[in-house]
Amino acid sequence: MRARYVVDTNVLIAASAADPTQPKEIDATPPDPALRYKVWSWLDQFQQSGSHLVLDEAGQIHKEYGHKLGFNDFGIQVVIHKWSTAAVDDVPVDYDGDGNGVLPDALSPIIHDAADKKMVAAALASHVLFEEGYVAFAGDTDWHDWESDLAQHGVLLEPIIEDWSRQKHAEKKKR
Fold first, then answer.
1. Which residue in 132, 136, 126, 66 sits closest to 90, CA to CA?
2. Eight-class DSSP state of 96
3. pLDDT digits 0-9 by tens, 52-105
């Protein structure tokens, strides 16, 4: 585990769907229960670790989490645990008029998913403040499209189910 992570919402969703104590019928990617369990295991280890969760000061990342999951879902409980153990780093993120995270000019046209812009902006701020900016993700293969550009800006990716996500990404590229 790294010292701190921006955790993409898809990680919380897949882990909540696979929670062995309270599995929930959630539309999550990947659909394979074994892969979801791997995501759950990563998030469980993250919860128990000293790693920090990176969120934006404006609360937009947490707001997105709340739109997708309920209070009792495992993913939200991990966020609450990180808060209760003072393991959340709130970083400054600027937002544009549409509510999207503002990125440097070099990254803005590359990160085409508006919802992920705030995640990238938070990782960039983490890199500036803490000299590291990691994004953990599971079911969203767009991150692989941006990997080299993000690395040039100090943002590194941690694909939790990397074999699966790289395969899905390659399949998407062939289309």
1. 126
2. -
3. 999 999 999 999 999 999 999 999 999 999 999 999 999 999 999 999 999 999
**Neighbour count for residue 116 (Cβ, 10 Å):** 22
Kindly state the tokens that stand for 175.
């289309």
Per-position b or e across 51-90, b if 16+ CB within 10 A of its CB: bbbbbbebebbbebbeebbeeebbbbbbbeebeeeebbbb
Show me where the domains of the chain are located: 4-174
The closest alpha carbon to 74, from 94, 93, 55, 46, belongs to 46
Residue with tokens 């739109």, as numbered in its chain: 67
Count of residues in the chain: 175
The pLDDT score that the predictor gives to residue 156 is: 95
Q: State pTM to two decimals.
A: 0.95
User: Which amino acid, residue 167?
Assistant: Q
CB 161 within 8 A of CB 38: yes
pLDDT(42) > 90: yes
